[in-house]
Amino acid sequence: MAHVIFYEKPGCAGNARQKALLRASGHEVEARNLLTEPWSPSSLRPYFGAKPVPEWFNVSSPRIKSGEIDPDKVTPQEALVMMILDPLLIRRPLMRIGDHCEAGFDQKAVDRWIGLKQTDEAVGDDCVRSIASDAA
Fold first, then answer.
1. N-term to C-term CA, the chain
2. What is the mean pLDDT of residues 106-113?
3. Entry pTM
4. Least C-beta-crowded within 10 Å: which of 1, 7, 34, 131?
5. Taking the CB of residue 94, how many other CB atoms lie within 10 A of it?
6. What is the C-alpha separation between 113 and 68, in angstroms, rounded?
7. Residue from 4, 12, 103, 127 carrying the catalytic annotation
8. What is the residue range of 13's domain?
9. Are strands 100-103 and 28-33 parallel, antiparallel or unpaired?
10. How confident is the model at residue 131 (pLDDT cuts 50, 70, 90)?
11. What is the rounded CA–CA span in Å between residue 101 and residue 12?
């Protein structure tokens, strides 16, 4: 199975569920702190691949939710600088296996990439706290 370098926000319930699914699927997970990693534009950019810039952002970030930052109006270079200065803006998790990098946790895409154990409940990259508060 795969050795996954998994950049997370420590204490994030969503990231905990994602790591649990990866481990249950037989993958080795090396968790790292997304917030303290010394990111640079060249180290961060590969995680976003061909995704449009708005998909690079964590929609649960307070600065996004408040409207302070509109991801639709940000250039790739501006986005990288913002994310380096405020890592809470980065869509989580960031995952790397060898030279392949991904941002976010799309369960179907991760399953196609490295294989996942089937689950009754979907595991995504939505903020668990936000889902619970939105449902209330």
1. 39
2. 92
3. 0.87
4. 1
5. 24
6. 34
7. 12
8. 3-135
9. unpaired
10. very low
11. 20
